[in-house]
Design brief:
The chain is of the alpha+beta class. Helices cover 42% and strands 19% of the residues. A five-stranded mixed beta barrel has the order 1-2-3-5-4. The longest helix has 29 residues.
Length: 160
């Protein structure tokens, strides 16, 4: 039926070592879990080549272990990636931060606010005077949308 394809042990070991190295290099170059499963499978093929010179068994071990590694790790990686909140990029990292009004803001008119020592054009749905604190709610191009900062409630004296 099937004739075994026999490969001399040194050639098989060298072939699986080369395959293992190439899959690891490919994974390191992409860093997106493209070939790590094949590297694990190549390791299984290498170990199998130590026990048999039959290439069919080595390839079968490679395919089965690669598929098993993919089936086990892919869902885990997907869950880990979905738990991690997306990093705020660019100007979006300013949302939620406090700024100080430099030039008064009026509804429908832009003014200026200072955030981390940088003056920004800003708009606010309610009036704010110079020196007031505000919170960035959105970024539209180079204009910050802000709202008045909620001031903490004044503490009442404990002796009353």
């Amino acid at each position: 039926m099937f004739q075994p394809i026999l490969v001399p042990e040194p050639a098989a070991i060298a072939g699986w070592l080369i395959a293992l190295a190439l899959f690891i290099i490919l994974e390191a170059a992409t860093v997106s879990l493209v070939s790590i499963w094949f590297a694990v499978g190549a390791l299984a093929g290498l170990i199998t080549s130590l026990f048999t010179g039959n290439l069919l068994y080595q390839l079968l071990a490679f395919a089965l272990v690669s598929a098993a590694a993919l089936a086990v790790t892919k869902p885990l990686v997907g869950r880990m990636r979905s738990r991690r909140p997306a990093a705020a990029l660019g100007l979006e990292r300013n949302i939620g931060r406090r700024a100080v009004v430099v030039q008064p803001l009026r509804p429908g008119l832009s003014g200026r606010v200072r955030l981390d020592g940088v003056d920004w054009s800003a708009v606010c749905p309610s009036p704010l005077e110079a020196g007031d604190e505000c919170v960035v709610t959105a970024v539209d191009s180079a204009t910050l949308r802000v709202e008045p900062a909620r001031q903490p409630a004044p503490e009442t004296p404990s002796h009353l």
